[in-house]
Amino acid sequence: MTTVRFTDITKRFATTPALSGVTAATGPGITGLLGPNGAGKTTLLRILATVLAPDHGRVEILGLDPGDREERTEIRRRLGYLPQEAGFHPRFTAFEFVDYVAILKELDDRRARHAEVHRVLEVVGLGNVAGKRIKTLSGGMRRRLGLAQALLARPEVLLLDEPTAGLDPEQRLRFRQLVSGEHGRTVVLSTHQTEDVAALCSRVVVMDRGAVRFDGTPAALARVASGRVWIADTEASLGAAVSWRTGDGRVRHVGNAPAGAEIAAPTLEDGYLLLIHQNRTDEEAA
Amino acid sequence: MSATETAAVQQEAPPTPGLGAPTSSEWRVARAVARIEARHLLRAAIVPAGLGLLMSVGGGDDVVELPSASFNSAFNLLLLAAVTLVASHRAVTRARRDGSEELFATTAAPARARTGGHLLAVMVPTMLGVVVTAVSVAALVSQAKPVGELVWSELAVGPVLVAGAGCLGVLLARLWPQPFTPYLACFLIAVAELGVNTPVFAGSGLRWLVFWVEGTLWWLLPRHSAAHLVYLLGLVAMAAVGAVVRHGLTRRLAGVGALAVAVTVVAAGVQMRQPQDHWRAADAMFAAPESVQRCWGRDGVRYCAFPRFRDVMAHVEGLVASVRAVTPEEAWPSPLAVTQRVTALDLEYAGPAADVLSHVVDMPRGRVRQPDDGELHPALEFGWSTVQELGLGVQLGAKTVGLPVVPDPRTGEVCLAVGQARAVVALWLGGHASDDAGDGLAWLVERASEAPAARGRPLHDAVLPIADVDVYGGFVVSLDDARLALELLRRDSSDVTARLAEHWDVVSRPTTTSAELAQLAGVPVPVGGAPRAPFVAHMDPDLVRLGVPCR
C-alpha cells in the first residue's frame, strides 16, 4: 500500500535548484532518506510536511493532494512532523509546549489532550521532566521532546528530519527502539547516519544534488559496493573512491583494489559512499 | 537552513483555510491557545499591575473626589498597557523568534486560530486592569470621604487601554514582527501623549484623540467621556479585526471592520466637537458665575455652587461646621456666604487643563484672584492636597477675627499680621476645618523651618510663591506665629476653645500680641519670642516694605 507518493518534484530557491525531478513512493514501514548536506532531503521532507509547495510535480499523501486546501488540512491532521530545528519556546515547560502543539493539532477535548500529552512524554522518556522549563533540558531531551510532539495523536505518516542529530549512543538506541515500535505507519526519516538506516529502515532512498540516486533496500544499497571494498595496509590507492584508516590500523578502500589488498564484505555505508562518489564523478565527466 | 530557505518557508507555508467563517474547531483552538497565552501574559502583567495599584492607593487625604479619581484612574494603568503591548507582540512573534513557525505550519489549526487565541488572551491583563481600577477606587473610598460620583465611562478607559494595547501588539506582530516594533510603538504613543498634553494643543480638539489626557480639573475636562470610551472601543475593534484580516478577508470581517471604523470616526468627531460647549460653560463660570450657580442656606450660612459641585459643597459645609464648633457663638460672622469662584489656586495645580481655561477666557492665571466681596471662596477641588481645606479654614478664621479674607484687590498685596494674636487665632481656627487642614498647617511650619533664613520671615514667603498667599487669606504671619497656632492646635481642643472664648475680646483685638495670646492660653511663648506692640517696630525692614500692617 502506497501512502506517500511524489512524482517529478522540482523546487528552486531563487536561482538555486533544490530538487530536480524527484520521484519515489513509499508505504507503511520506515524509509530512510540518506544523502549529504545540500542533497535536498530537508526540502523534500518540507514538501511532504506541507510546509513548502513544489514548483512542479505531484505529491500525494494518504491519497490526498496537499495542493488542495481542504485535503491539505486533512493531511495535517494525520501527519506528525519533526523539523530539523523544532524551535522550542525556552520559557515553556515540556508539557506546555507539547500541549500547545496538541492544541494546534485540534485535540479539542482538554482532558483527553492532556492524557495524550502525558502519553507521548512517557513514550520518549520525558514524563519525569514534564514540568521543567525547556531551557533547562539537555540537547538530547529537547530532541526527544520534538519527537514527542510528532507522535501526538498517533499520526499515520511520521516525517522525521535528522531525528538522531546530537543524540548520544544511548539516546540513539532509545530512539531506534521508539521508532521501530511504530508499527503500521509510514515513517520517513532523513539522516546522515547510515547506521540508523541500517538498523531501522526497510527501505532507503539516497539523494544527492536534488535527485534520487538510489531507491531500494539497505541490503541492495550495500550490494552496490559488492566486490569493491578492500582492506590494505597502505593508504595510497589511485582507484579508490574513498579510503580511511580503521581502528585496527589498516586502511579500508572503497572502489578499485589497491595493490596487495584483501577484499571485504560491503556495508550499507560502503555502498552509499561509492554511490555518491560515482555520481559526482559522472556529473563532473558530463 | 539557509536564509533563502527560511524566507521561503515563512512565505510559502500554506496556511490552512483562512477564508470563510471560523469553524467551531477554530474557536476551540483559539480558546485553548488563549488559556496558555493568558498565563504568559499574566506573568508579564502582574508587576506593572501591582505598581499601578500602589500608585493608586497612595495619599491618605480626608476626602477623595470621585470624578477626579475616575478621570485619573487610567493613568495608573498606562504602564500595564505598555507592558501588555510589548508582551502580546512578543507572544505572537515567539514562534518566529524561536523557529517553531515551520512546525506550527504543519498543524491542522490555521494561523488565524492562533491569532484569535492571542487576542482572547489579552482579556486577562484587561481583567487585571479592571481589578486594579476597582481595588484602587475601593481603597480610596475606604480611606477617605468620597465626594461626588464615579464616572463609569472614565473608569473604563484604563482597562480598555490595556485591551487596546494588547490588540495593537498582536496587530503589529502580524504586520511588523521585528523585535523593536512594540518598543517603537510605545515610544511613538508616549511622544504623542506628551506632545498632546502640552499647551500647544490646549485649545485643539485633536488632543482628545490620544488615549489619555492629563487633567486634575475634572470639571474643566471637556472630553465627552462616553464618546471617548466608544472611540477607544472602536480602536480596539479595529486593531483586533486588522490582526485577523492578515490571514484573509472575509465578508463578515469586512463588515465588522467597517462598523468599527465608522463607530470610531463618529465617536472621534463627537468628542472633538464637545469642548466648544464645555468651554462656553467654563467661560460662564468666570464671566458670570452667579448666572450658573445654585444657592441654598444652611445653619445661617449661604452657599452657592457651580453645576455638578453640589457634592463638593457638601464637604465644604462640613469644613465650615468644624470651624464653627470651636468658634464662640457671638464671634461667628454673620451674615456669612460661601461662594464658589474659579481662583488662582484652582489653576495653579491644574497643569495643561489650566491652559485650556486660559485659552478659553484669554486670562493669565496670575490675574485670577479671589474677589474682595466679603464672601468666602472655597477651592473647587478637594482631596489631592491639604492646601484647600486649610485655606478655607483660614479664610473663615480671618473673617471671624477681622482680618482681610483676600489680598488687596487693587494691588494684590497682603497685609502684615506678624505677631498679632488674632492672626494666630485665625490659623488655629483654620486648622480645625479638618484633620487634613491641621496636617496642612504642620506641613507649612515644617517646610518653613527648613527654609534658609526662615526666622523673622513671613511664613508664606518662606514656603510658597506669593501667588499662593491669597489662598490663606489676605494676611501673612511669621513662622513663630504659625508655630504657636500649631501648638494650640495640638492641645486639648475644648480647653483651648474655652480659654479663647473667655478672652475673645482680647485675643481678637488688633493690638494683642501673639505672646500675650500664648500666656492667656497657657502655652509657652514661641522660641525667639513673639514681638510686642507696636508690631512694625519688631519687623524686619524688608518685611515692612512688603506691605502694610493689618489694621
Which parts of chain B are unreliable, with pLDDT below 50 for 5 consecutive residues or more?
6-11, 13-19, 462-469, 529-539
Indicate the proportion of strand residues of chain A: 25-35%
CATH topology of the largest domain in chain A: Rossmann fold
Termini separation of chain B comes to 93 Å
Biggest beta-sheet profile of chain B:
3 strands, mixed
Question: Which value, in Å, is the CA radius of gyration of chain A?
Answer: 21 Å
Q: Radius of gyration of chain B, rounded?
A: 30 Å
Order of helices and strands of chain A: EEEHEHEHHHEHEHEEHEEEEH
The shape of chain B, in one word, is elongated
Q: Tell me about the biggest sheet of chain A?
A: 6 strands, mixed
Q: What is the percent of helical residues of chain A?
A: 25-40%
**Molecular shape of chain A:** globular
CATH superfamily of the largest domain in chain A: P-loop containing nucleotide triphosphate hydrolases
Structural class of chain A: alpha/beta
Per CATH, which architecture of the largest domain in chain A? Answer: 3-Layer(aba) Sandwich
The helix content of chain B, as a percent range, equals 55-70%
Number of helices of chain B: 26
Uncertain spans of chain A, ≥5 residues at pLDDT below 50?
Answer: none
Please give a structural write-up.
- The complex is a heterodimer of chains A (about 290) and B (about 550).
- With about 290 residues, chain A is α/β, with parallel strands linked by helices.
- Chain A has three domains: about 1-80 and about 155-215, Rossmann fold; about 85-155, no CATH class; about 220-285, no CATH class.
- Helices cover about 35% and strands about 25% of the residues of chain A.
- Chain A contains nine helices and 13 strands.
- A six-stranded mixed beta sheet of chain A has the order 5-6-7-3-8-9, sandwiched between helices. A four-stranded antiparallel beta sheet of chain A has the order 11-12-10-13, covered by helices on one side.
- In chain A, strand 6, helix 6 (about 170-180) and strand 7 form a beta-alpha-beta unit.
- In chain A, helix 3 packs across helix 4 (about 110-125).
- The model of chain A has no long low-confidence stretch (mean pLDDT about 90).
- With about 550 residues, chain B is mainly alpha-helical.
- Chain B has two domains: about 20-285, no CATH class; about 295-545, no CATH class.
- In chain B, about 60% of the residues lie in helices and about 5% in strands.
- Chain B is built from 26 helices and seven strands.
- Chain B has a three-stranded mixed beta sheet with strand order 3-4-5. Chain B has a two-stranded parallel ribbon with strand order 1-2.
- In chain B, strand 4, helix 15 and strand 5 form a beta-alpha-beta unit.
- In chain B, helix 2 (about 25-55) packs parallel to helix 8.
- Chain B is elongated.
